[in-house]
């Protein structure tokens, strides 16, 4: 636990601190999923572009 988290727990109480930690980790999970989706979709678009360029070339 970081110093910031310790100070947060002291100032807001254990219940609220735990809620904040949970919501932060939940937010991180959402961001991870969005980034993963963005990487996959950009890869898919690149692949599709290559296929279309290949078809157009013939």
Automatic annotation (TrEMBL):
Record's keyword annotation contains Transmembrane helix: yes
Region feature (Disordered): 1-23
Polar residues: bias regions: 1-11
Domain of life of the native organism: Bacteria
Transmembrane segments annotated in the record for this chain: 34-56
Keywords: Membrane, Transmembrane, Transmembrane helix
Name used for this protein in its record: Uncharacterized protein
